[in-house]
From TrEMBL:
Cell compartment(s), UniProt: Cytoplasm; Nucleus
Protein name: Importin N-terminal domain-containing protein
GO terms of biological process kind: protein export from nucleus
Superkingdom classification of source: Eukaryota
Originating organism: Selaginella moellendorffii (Spikemoss)
SMART domains (UniProt xref): IBN_N
Keyword flag Protein transport: yes
One function term, GO molecular function aspect: small GTPase binding
UniProt keywords, alphabetically: Cytoplasm, Nucleus, Protein transport, Transport
């Protein structure tokens, strides 16, 4: 930079310019500050000399990147820390807020990374308190801000540290500093209770919340989950939390403040309500704590203080929900003023349900509270009444009534109201809790449901008899109300087996409720209702019916059938579970016919259809049904219009998977031929289509549909007996059509993706289904077709220009093609030696095109797309295991590229990928040691090529060995056994290189890993570990010798990582 002014101008453009090109130029010019270590001193000079906030931001953010991405000398890090503290103390009052935030983030990052390197980093709390002890408000604010950022930094993983290293630092911080920081937050809150500066109070409250939300035991809990139960606060916090002034402080702050301070106070109380039982000195202290919680929440309900604020309301509902999560019903009942508390909570719940539009996101917590309360009643041993009998039925009725009101308002007000039925996540959460309330006093709740349902069902039935009903909105309201009731009845049926009440009584009531649903089913697809399939309210009703049948089937169809329930259903003609199954399948068929353009209904219907054949007996029962046999005989677009809708093409696989499972339930060739007859006609039609018409949209959609159908049927074959008829039908008669289709549509992923996915399913030898007779050439013939397909696709896709969406148009097809070849090579149904013996180029052509496709993808893109990476490394693992000569016979640069990609794969966070790479390296190194190092067959062409590669690239194996040692010793790897397998062979190949690597790793501890939480004797541990590593290990790769080495390595790793 020529001048400071020039730099400030660039910084201003970087952060403020609206011109992307200008911003990009500034970023490129200034990048050196964050990447080049020589510019660290320049960053300090900028902070010292510039008054531009953007230049200051550049300096602080660049230093943050330098500290994070590079290993800096200890003294340099300490100097940066001291300078930032001094800078904030002297100039903090003058700085912009975003500059202060960036500087504090830098300070806390450097503190975390150096926490175990020097005790001066651990004095950060004292340094923050120095700020807070000064007279100015700004210094007090900076001190609190430092502590806030410090706790946050310590609680979240960093990209420069492995998760294990992060947790060690976090644990040391938790044990040595977190309690003091929490005490500072409480003291500050006490001092600031009447302070007018909300900034300070928000920082103090935020600090308390961060302390209470700290990941104490390394579980990385999801704060959105209400199933956490308890938080594992350390025992050293006991005295502070048993002091009732702590909990009262947060209730006081809630009472005197507004959001965001008030809702943060409630969040702190939510955490306090989740404290583990063992923290308290005894039950007396714990019950005293609970008493204060109930007293505080009761007072909020009594005064309604702050509940008009939505964020307060939401957090208060969370607080109520946490009370029952962490405390038993008997404990709640024994608290003084419980009766008043439960009454106020019940009234609050009812009001919340009535205000459904405002409190929709909070209903879940209230339903969860009451469901947990009623679920505890059977285990209640207390002399005090729970009073739940008086309140739960009213709450249940209020909820159902409010859902009815929501339908009315959503339709009448249309855009002014959000329909809760449209929020599937909230709907499912509520239906998980509500049935426990309904079954608590089932007779009363069911009577209320029937009281609402019967007149609505009557109106719906009468509407079906009107040819052209005029009041469409009125019918939509009826359908919406029926949707709610069907969902509620289905959720009640769902938990039948979890109910602790009298079985016979509940089955009778289940029969009454289910009878209404079956009665509704008789009407919903009749009369004028058949004109409403395009209406959203009708679609939601049918989704609810399908959901009900899912639950009904699991509870009352099959071995769980009930005499009491079917006695009631027999009045409607449903005498047993076989009749019920037939009705369910008929409903599925109707929906598949009538809802071609509603994907939600199609998906729900197919999910239910897919579940029906689960279990051998269920499948056998289904084959007796007329509705099932109709589907098996007529699965064409003429009967099921959803097959004719391109948007449903993905669902065809599910449809035909279920059809396939049903067809293969019985060993019947005639049933199979009948089922595939429609697909046979499609093949014949495609064969008769001339090339000139093969690129039409009609042919495209036909091919896509056929491939998805075939994939579904293939997925259903799980044995040689079921796969053989399918193979004999497709080969050789129809494979030419498949390859022809690929040739014509190779540039269209919409066609190639389902085609390749079908082939990937067809060639996988799951459950040994592709096992042919010893005299059969089918395995070889199948691979020849696979080779033709791969060559056609590979040559076609490689000839196309680079597309804008390279994954969709190129990489996706390539990874599926690699999966096809990988499964074929590893399927054990082809004798690959035959191809070379008889001069058949099928294998060589397939491997050649697969390698070309693999090498066309840059390593950076392989790492960026997980599915691409998985298929790439699985392919090379199979090559190294079964066809190593293919890799060895490559030219040296390409061979080196392959091994470089394997080294990159070893470092993948995906354990399956790193394990595949380790297996590939193990096979290669074992071959090299056995055939070249030991010299058993050094004159073979393969060995000569291999030796030449290593001679030209002597660092390949040593670099792999070093990387493997660093992974095993310094990283948290769940697949340690797999990663460690190649190490012995790599050591034996070049023992001198192993000696050099030992020296490098031991010497590099100070330079490479200063940030890791290592004890001072880490180098000594490494030295001893390496000395013992080869104890009792011989110079062979026999299995017993490998196991001994692996045991030694495991002990080495354990001893080194131990504190």
């Amino acid at each position: 930079m020529e001048s400071l002014a020039q730099l400030e101008a660039l910084c201003d453009r970087l952060y403020n310019s609206q011109d992307p090109a200008e911003r990009a130029h500034a970023e490129s010019t200034l990048q050196c500050f964050s990447t080049n270590l020589d510019y660290i001193s320049q960053c300090q000079l900028i902070l010292e000399s510039s008054s531009s906030p953007y230049a200051q931001l550049l300096a602080s953010s660049s230093l943050l990147k330098q500290v994070t991405n590079h290993t800096l000398a200890l003294q340099l890090r300490i100097d940066i820390r001291n300078y930032i503290l001094s800078y904030l103390a002297s100039k903090g009052q003058e700085l912009q807020a975003f500059v202060i935030i960036s500087l504090i983030q830098l300070l806390c990052r450097i503190t975390k990374l150096g926490w175990n390197d020097d005790d001066r980093f651990k004095e950060i709390t004292k340094e923050a308190m120095k700020f807070m002890s000064q007279a100015t408000v700004e210094h007090f604010y900076i001190g609190l801000r430092i502590l806030n950022q410090l706790v946050q930094e310590m609680n979240q993983p960093n990209p420069c540290l492995s998760l294990a290293h992060h947790r060690k630092i976090a644990c040391f911080f938790r044990d040595s500093a977190l309690l003091q920081i929490f005490q500072i937050s409480l003291t500050s809150l006490g001092q600031l209770k009447r302070d007018a500066d909300d900034r300070l109070r928000q920082q103090a409250m935020g600090l308390a919340l961060k302390c209470l939300s700290f990941d104490f035991v390394g579980t990385s809990q999801d704060e959105s989950s209400e199933e956490l139960g308890t938080i594992q606060i350390p025992s050293s916090w006991k005295g502070l939390l048993e002091d009732m002034s702590t909990i009262n402080l947060f209730f006081d702050y809630y009472a005197i403040s507004k959001p965001p301070l008030s809702n943060q106070a409630l969040e702190c109380l939510v955490q306090l309500a989740s404290i583990r039982r063992a923290l308290f000195s005894g039950e007396t202290e714990r019950m005293k704590f609970l008493s204060h919680l109930l007293s505080g929440t009761r007072e909020i309900l009594r005064t309604q203080q702050g509940l008009s604020e939505h964020v307060n309301y939401h957090e208060y509902c969370r607080l109520l929900g946490r009370l029952k999560t962490n405390y038993q019903l008997s404990e709640l009942i024994s608290v003084e003023n419980y009766n008043d508390w439960i009454r106020l909570v019940a009234e609050f719940t009812i009001r919340s349900f009535q205000s459904w539009q405002w409190a929709s996101g909070s209903v879940y917590y209230l339903l969860g509270l009451w469901s947990r309360l009623v679920s505890s009643v059977p285990y209640l041993k207390s002399n005090f009444p729970s009073l739940l009998d008086a309140y739960v039925p009213k709450i249940t009725e209020a909820y159902i009534t409010s859902r009815f009101d929501s339908v009315q308002q959503a339709i009448v007000q249309n855009n002014l109201a959000e329909d809760p039925l449209d929020n599937e996540e909230h709907l499912q959460d509520q239906l998980d809790s509500l049935p426990f309330l309904c079954r608590f006093q089932y007779e009363r709740s069911s009577a209320f449901i029937l009281q609402l349902l019967d007149p609505i069902l009557q109106s719906f039935t009468e509407a079906s008899r009107v040819p052209n009903p005029a009041e469409g909105s009125r019918l939509s309201i009826i359908e919406g109300q029926l949707t709610w009731l069907v969902h509620i009845i289905g959720s009640i049926i769902k938990i039948r087996q979890n109910s602790a009440s009298s079985a016979e009584v509940h089955e009778v009531i289940d029969g009454e409720l289910s009878a209404r649903v079956f009665q509704l089913l008789q009407v919903t697809d009749s009369g004028s209702h058949v004109q409403r399939y395009g209406e959203r309210s009708k679609q939601r009703l049918d989704i609810a019916l399908l959901s009900f049948f899912q639950h009904f089937r699991k509870v009352y169809v099959g071995e769980h059938s009930s005499k009491q329930l079917y006695a009631r259903l027999s009045e409607l003609g449903v005498q047993d579970n076989l009749v019920a199954l037939n009705i369910i399948v008929a409903k599925i068929a109707t929906d598949l016919k009538c809802y071609a353009q509603c994907e939600d209904v199609i998906q729900q219907a197919l999910n239910l259809f897919q579940e029906l054949p689960t279990g051998y007996m269920s499948g056998k029962l289904l084959l007796k049904l007329d509705a099932v046999n109709f589907i098996l005989a007529n699965h064409t677009r003429e009967h099921f219009s959803f097959l004719d809708e391109p948007s449903n093409s993905r669902h065809r696989t599910t449809f035909y998977f279920t059809i396939g499972r049903l067809v293969f339930m019985e060993d019947s060739v005639s049933r199979f031929r009948t089922a595939i007859a429609p697909l046979q006609q499609v093949f014949l039609s495609l064969e008769a289509t001339p090339d000139s018409a093969f690129r039409s949209d009609a042919v495209k959609y036909t091919i896509v549909g056929l491939m998805r159908d075939l994939r579904g049927i293939t997925m259903a074959t799980n044995s040689r007996k079921t796969f053989t008829p399918l193979f004999d039908w497709l080969y050789p008669a129809h494979f030419s059509v498949i390859i022809r289709a690929l040739g014509h549509w190779v540039d269209t992923p919409e066609v190639t993706t389902p085609l390749l996915k079908f082939m990937a399913e067809f060639v996988v030898n799951k459950t040994q289904r592709l096992t042919f007779e010893s005299s059969s050439p089918n395995g070889i013939l199948l691979f020849r077709e696979i080779s033709k397909l791969l060559v056609a696709y590979g040559n076609g896709i490689m000839a196309l220009p680079t597309p804008s969406d390279i994954y969709a148009y190129k990489y996706k097809g390539i990874w599926i093609a690699l999966v096809i070849l990988t499964r074929a090579l590893g399927g054990n149904y082809v004798n690959f030696g035959v191809f070379e013996l008889y001069g058949d180029p099928a294998l060589a052509d397939a491997l050649d095109v697969a390698l070309k496709m693999s090498f066309s993808i840059p390593l950076a893109d392989i790492a960026a797309y997980r599915k691409v990476a998985r298929s790439y490394y699985a392919f090379f693992e199979v090559l190294c295991h079964h066809h190593l000569s293919v890799i060895v016979n490559l030219d040296t640069p390409t061979f080196s590229h392959v091994l470089g990609s394997l080294e990159a794969g070893l470092k993948s966070l995906d354990a399956s990928i790193s394990s595949q790479c380790a297996s590939a390296v193990d096979n290669m190194s074992a071959y090299y040691f056995t055939h070249i190092t030991l010299g058993e067959s050094p004159t073979s062409p393969m060995s000569i090529n291999f030796a030449r590669h290593i001679q030209e690239r002597p660092n390949i194996f040593p670099q792999l060995l070093k990387s493997l040692f660093e992974l095993v010793l310094f990283e948290e790897c769940s697949n340690q056994w797999s990663i460690s397998r190649p190490i012995l062979a790599l050591i034996l190949i070049n023992e001198q290189a192993y000696t050099d690597i030992k020296i490098q790793i031991i010497a590099s501890q100070v330079l490479l890993y200063p940030l890791v939480t290592r004890p001072p004797d880490s180098q000594q541990k490494l030295l001893l570990g390496f000395e013992k590593l080869m104890t009792d290990v011989n110079r062979t790769l026999e299995p017993t010798n490998r196991e001994k080495f692996t045991q030694n390595l495991t002990i080495f790793r354990h001893d080194f990582l131990a504190k």
